[in-house]
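step=predict obj=tRNA-binding protein n=110
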Amino acid sequence: MATIDDFNKLDIRVGKVIAVADFPEARKPAFKLSIDLGPEIGIKRSSAQIVQNYTKEELADKLVLCVVNFPPRQIGPFISEVLTLGVPDKDGNVVLIEPGKTVPPGGRLY
């Protein structure tokens, strides 16, 4: 069973999607995201398999939650620097987790 200390090891922050690009080299359909995670962390990149539920236009300025303290991960020719969090819909496609209100980028989940 996980403990509160285990949870506290994760650094989950709110970020604002500032750019979205197609990722045709990905094995599964995905977008390349640039996410502003506030002044402490800055702008990071993430690959997200979310094309079934979102358009590039819908993602612009969207607030999302990201794990920022995992090591970067090579995904094809792209390096994903943060893990953008989501949950599966009824078809198993990713739905992003986002705050219910407008909050500034960089805020830490606790």
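step=describe
The chain has one domain: 4-96.
step=end
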